[in-house]
Amino acid sequence: MSSSSAPHTFATPSGWSTPAEPSSTPPSTSPPQDETCPTPQQAHTVINNVVALKACLDSMVRAMTVPPKLYSQPHLYPPTNTLYSPTKFGSQSSFEIPLAPAPLSSIPQSTPELYFDAEGISLSRSGELSILILHIETLTLTHTDLLHVHVLSRRTFTTRTTNNLHTLKSLLEDNRLPKVLFDCRMDSDALFGQYGVLLGGVIDLQLMSLAAQEGGGRHLPGLEHCLRTDLKLTMEEQEWVLQAKHKGQVLWRPKMGGSMERFNDNPLH
Asked: What global pTM score does this model have?
């Protein structure tokens, strides 16, 4: 069907397309919007069950530029001409041929699409990982998910996408998929120590800020400092940051009447 015979549609808040009502107002003189860059959808969701988690992962994979999955196939009793030494498992020999990742020059460069943070009680390998905050930022999707690891436990990282190709663990470990964090030390320690997730492709904004300091900075900057100095926030924006930080501290900081157990509340508020 030609474009001239199709009714003009627009997206309603519920996501459905509805025929536009005729208007008697004159056409706008503003330049037309680029139809190839639709307005991102904005929302946040608390994920505390496997069904919602699978839908979240499916949405992530559809929206992001996820590199094709690499496979390495284990074999029993390797051929005689193999260059790989077998590893003994009981009475059998097993070896695995690793597949080399694509050269860096062949990987398209683009703005990172995945941003995340972890929160918990004494967050570390010996503490408790309670929440993962995932933020997706693409041309078509702007979305934040709070994954309640305290409820989902290992299912957070083992639940597969509908096409059975990806888990959150595989996405976080893929070094071809950039992930942006701020100070990943305790996040990485907790993820690996508790769930065996070895982060790959990390872009640590704290280290980038440190490297950008004049004279090769000696002290790791905090998030609040970076927000003030690197983003050049206005006074109103700085006040908003301080208020948001204060609200969070009232909830979880014991000295201010809060408790870290709030990270484990179900449902999250």
From this structure: 0.67
